[in-house]
Design a protein that fits this description.
Elements: E1 13-17, H1 22-33, E2 39-42, H2 53-58, E3 66-69, E4 72-75, H3 77-87, H4 98-115, H5 121-131, H6 133-155, H7 170-185, H8 194-203, H9 207-212
Parallel strand pairs: 1-2
Antiparallel strand pairs: 1-3, 3-4
Helix pairs in contact: 1-3, 1-7, 4-6, 4-7, 5-6, 7-8
């Protein structure tokens, strides 16, 4: 069923999200790209709402995002993106070409496994308590830069307007929120990463990305 604006209407999709979460941003971006409507349910991580018994039933790890699609509950942004790609194949985010598909999965994995987990609030708070605020900042910055250098090398042969060509793909869904948050919070000098900088200029202009941005969310705090 399609809405008047062309978006697919689903009465089942519910996204548990926190406005500042880059992981949730990925999913919001992908849902917008696929034209899928969803109900937004805010989980305030600063107030510990992720530890409520109700949310623990959805994700025992107490992380956002969580997607509920009828009787199906999926947590972890990578798992959610793969689920959406299979269940809602419109506006495919994974190319049919095996090489480009593999490249997308590698880029997504670098962001979700080797960059983002190393600057999670819980990790940085622990480091600050143990070794101080400056070390916390440097730890996050160093690991983000390490991941960005890896992405630069990975994408150098196939990057076009976007990460793996001239069409938006899953790699873009993971990379764009990561750059947006990293540049602001960790003062990353993006001129060091010319390929990422170039594709981010294209990514950040997408209306689906803008609509998914933290400040546009109903739980955003100025």
């Amino acid at each position: 069923m399609a809405a008047k604006d062309g978006r697919e209407v689903s009465s089942k999709l519910v996204l548990y999200s926190f406005w500042q979460s880059s992981c949730a941003w990925r999913v919001r971006f992908a849902l917008n790209l696929k034209g899928l409507s969803y109900e937004y349910k805010a989980v305030d991580l600063t107030k510990g709402e992720q530890f409520t018994p109700e949310f623990e039933k959805l994700n025992p790890l107490h992380f956002v995002p969580v997607l509920v699609d009828g009787d199906i509950v999926v947590s972890d942004s990578f798992a959610i993106l793969m689920y959406l790609e299979e269940k809602y194949p419109q506006r495919a985010l994974l190319p049919a070409d095996p090489q480009r598909k593999a490249l997308n999965l590698q880029a997504a994995s670098i962001v979700s496994s080797s960059i983002q987990p190393l600057h999670m609030m819980s990790i940085l708070k622990y480091l600050e308590e143990k070794i101080g605020p400056q070390e916390r900042f440097l730890f996050g910055q160093t690991n983000i830069e390490k991941g960005f250098f890896a992405l630069e090398k990975l994408l150098k042969d196939l990057a076009g307007k976007y990460a793996t060509g001239d069409e938006v793909s899953m790699a873009d869904v993971f990379i764009a929120p990561q750059i947006a948050i990293s540049a602001e919070r960790f003062k990353i000098d993006m001129s060091t990463f010319p390929i990422l900088s170039r594709i981010y200029d294209s990514q950040k202009a997408l209306r689906e990305f803008i609509a998914a941005s933290p400040e546009k969310q109903p739980d955003a705090v100025n």
